[in-house]
Write a structure and sequence with these properties.
alpha/beta, Rossmann fold, seven-stranded parallel beta sheet, five-stranded parallel beta sheet, 12 strands, 46% helix, globular
Length: 313
């Protein structure tokens, strides 16, 4: 390890996610993880003892949340840069976090594509605001433009999944792009109600064939899946909304399989999605429930590695 390496403290209460962060940071020989913490109080204690250069900090921490922890961290480690990486996407929360003096804010579902660019940006003394964040705080750095992405959403409850999926679908349909959703019946109903309440023309899109829904609870027929993707893309072209449609594909099928202990079946879906990303103009968002039991950490690492957001083929 280089003597000039930046010292990093990673703070998140979910061990598999800390593993993901470790695996990403290990790609750089100028970044050294000197400690980890699973709650806000532990973060403050370790930061005081270790004096890191960078603190990667979650919002939803037990005992002391990330916002409160950041206030204390700014006092005891004023030279350390704080980079929030969280599921929270509310503009109010982002504004509050940045208002505390944090150097950046990124979404967990963009970790694979944006963590290293975010770290590079904040260590250069500039502010980073990740893609997918509706925040009016000015920034000299923006997330990189990507030809496609394959993102992993880890959700603790249905509200997180519904919020992420509705924003993902809404952004696609409002820009004239098609969307394909692999969701369970209850989640489909909740998503439709939310999209309608937000004024998204989802019913028109379904009638045109530019918004297609598949059942995530049953077996996934690969041919039907591929036909649905092709149909949605063609429908978008015929609707005249865009000449080069960009499909937004979000689903919870692979995540449900993984939660049931069927890691190989989940990986088969993820690998097929990676194959699709090589030949289609596509953004993919996969939802995985937060599960903590024996054996999940290693399988989660394999699942995480299958999500290659931002990689151009």
């Amino acid at each position: 390890m280089s003597k000039a390496a930046f010292k990093v403290l990673v703070v998140d209460d979910y061990e598999p996610f800390r593993q993901v962060v470790r695996s990403i940071l290990e790609l750089r020989d100028d970044l050294q993880i000197i400690g980890e913490a699973s709650d806000g109080f532990e973060a403050v204690e370790k930061a005081c003892a270790l004096q890191p250069d960078l603190i990667v900090l979650d919002i939803g921490l037990p005992k002391l949340n990330g916002i409160s922890a950041a206030k204390r961290l700014r006092q005891i480690t004023p030279e350390a840069r704080i980079l929030f990486v969280s599921e929270e996407s509310s503009s109010d929360i982002v504004q509050e976090a940045l208002g505390l003096g944090a150097a950046g804010y990124a979404l967990k579902l963009r970790t694979h594509s944006e963590l290293l660019p975010a770290i590079e940006t904040v260590l250069c003394g500039r502010r980073f605001i990740g893609s997918g964040l509706d925040c009016q705080v000015s920034s000299s750095a923006v997330a990189p433009t990507r030809r496609h992405c394959h993102d992993l959403l880890m959700y603790s409850d249905d509200a997180v999944l519904l919020d992420a999926f509705s924003r993902f679908i809404s952004a696609a349909l409002k820009s004239g792009n098609p969307s394909l959703v692999l969701a369970t019946g209850p989640h489909r109903g909740s998503l439709l109600r939310r999209l309608r309440s937000e004024g998204v023309a989802v019913d028109d899109a379904m009638e045109q064939g530019t918004c297609v829904w598949l059942d995530a609870a049953g077996d996934l027929d690969l041919n039907h899946f591929l036909d649905a993707i092709a149909g949605a893309m063609e429908a978008a072209i015929q609707a005249g909304q865009t000449d080069q449609p960009r499909l937004a594909l979000c689903g919870e099928r692979a995540g449900r399989l993984w939660a049931e202990g069927k890691t190989e079946a989940a990986l088969q879906i993820e690998h097929k999605c990676n194959d699709l990303a090589k030949t289609h103009n596509i953004d993919i968002l996969c939802a995985y429930p937060l599960v903590e039991d024996e054996g999940t950490e290693r399988s989660f690492e394999r699942i995480s590695a299958a999500h290659t957001a931002g990689r151009s083929e």
